[in-house]
Structures are given as structure tokens and as C-alpha cells.
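Q: Trace C-alpha cell order:
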Amino acid sequence: MTDKNLKYVPFVTEVMTARYPKLTEPDTKGEYADGKYKTEATADDDYTERFQEEIGAVIDAHFAGKKNVHTPWKETKEGAIAFNFKSPKKKPELFDAKGNPLKPGIVIHGGSLIRISGLIAAWQKGQKRGVSLWPDAVRVIKLAVGFDASEPFCGAGGDFDASQAFGPPEDGYDGSAPA
């Protein structure tokens, strides 16, 4: 499989907790800045296990028997599994819990409860291979506000319509309501 033959599998997460999100603006400052839109996200143990199995099925389908396959998660200092979502080329569409686009100036902080829709992308470059989680859309279920809550303790293309990826509106953050 070459870089031009990426394999894609769509996903929609359950509610997760954002960690170090750079979803409103790309990550352009600091040691790990790469100019991309990204976030880590954690979930309860049950969903974490199911999402790892979903990603594992993509790995098995494209890299059966291969060693050293990159997985899009890591263990945090607190012992939780944090999934890494990173957009390779575009800003994900951002919505409130009702499915309305987020108003300009709304910043998604760490600790916000979010759902993510996107693609599991299987890739190979030379001897390196793995899967990545590419976010197409983010739905904010509960927006963390106040000081920078990015610390953990504070807390597709084509005719794709990202506003419909999550299904009907949900109870939670409504960006159209006055602050």
C-alpha cells in the first residue's frame, strides 16, 4: 500500500473528554506545534475498549501479520487511554449539541465533552505503517469555559454533510443561546 492508496473507514465516537484541543485554530505554538487541527480525547473504560477494537479491526484488515503498526492512542500519566485525532489538511467542522455551527470566537477547551466524526485512515510510508484518526466534524456536548482548561485535571470529502453525522440534536451546549 502506497501513500496514495490510503484505506478509510468512517467512525462516529460516543461522548469523550477533550484534552489539549486545537480545533478552533491550528496548533502553531510550542514544542509540538505542527500546524494541524487536533485533539486528544478520553472516554470511559467500556467505550475505550470498544473503540480500540474498532481501530484494531482496521489494523487487522490492512496489516495482518505486520509488526510495529502505529496506533492512534497512548496511555496518559493518569493511566487512561487518550485517542489522538489529527486532521491532515483541513479544519473540522464544529457544532454545538443541537447541530448548529459554532459561532466565531468560541474556543473548545480541554475538559469539554465532545463527539467526533471522521475517518480511520490506514497508511503506509516506506517501512512505517499505521492508522490515524482524522476528524471531519466535532460536536460539543458540554463546553468547558473559564481559564485554560486544557490540563487533564481541569476538566471525507464528496457530499458529506458533517452537521448530520451525529444524528438528531442532543441535550447539551447550545451555541445559538445568549451567553
